């Protein structure tokens, strides 16, 4: 049998996902460290530890993840997402309180983006900009796009309530590593799958 466990920052003992999931709030950020070949290429091209980003959201009693992936902007139960993922998933929360009304606004914006396509070419361009150390656009422009990639999607969700995850970098040039280094976020733990003995 497999169980999802969380290894906290200050604890060497993993805790059951079922015990920790109630602490995860709407809008908390999930950053992924993948072990697959495509993840390694992303890590190399973006010079980032992280290869993917998503946002947690509660739908009734189900904890879900909103993310921009190859099939487009979609929503999946977090437990299923974690079971399928080959790598670690880091859980981040904000360093300052966000009101429930603002969290609701973030999630409503995120839900309105569901079904949009994945911005594959824009993500490739981002990789080239980083790889060849080109200057990136510094202005944030909150506008509806037809296609998004993961970190751009997460950055826009925060920007809709006036929280700029990285000053001086446009959301459309945001990497998962930029999100991880945001002064607005703090890492809470690592979600992993362990086998019960």
Secondary structure topology:
Layout: E1 2-8, E2 15-16, H1 17-20, E3 29-34, H2 37-46, E4 52-59, E5 62-69, E6 72-77, H3 78-84, E7 87-94, H4 100-112, E8 117-118, H5 120-131, E9 147-148, H6 150-159, H7 176-180, E10 185-195
Parallel strand pairs: 8-9
Antiparallel strand pairs: 1-2, 1-10, 3-4, 3-7, 4-5, 5-6, 7-10
Helix pairs in contact: 2-5, 4-6
If you had to describe this structure to a student in words, what would you say it looks like?
With about 200 residues, the chain is an alpha+beta fold. It has a single domain (about 1-195), classed as endopeptidase fold (from Nostoc punctiforme) (Alpha-Beta Complex). About 30% of the residues lie in helices and about 30% in strands. The chain has 7 helices and 10 strands. The N and C termini lie close together (about 10 Å). The model has no long low-confidence stretch (mean pLDDT about 80).
Compact overview of the structure:
The chain is α+β, with helices and mostly antiparallel strands. The protein has helices at residues 17-20, 37-46, 78-84, 100-112, 120-131, 150-159, 176-180; strands at 2-8, 15-16, 29-34, 52-59, 62-69, 72-77, 87-94, 117-118, 147-148, 185-195.
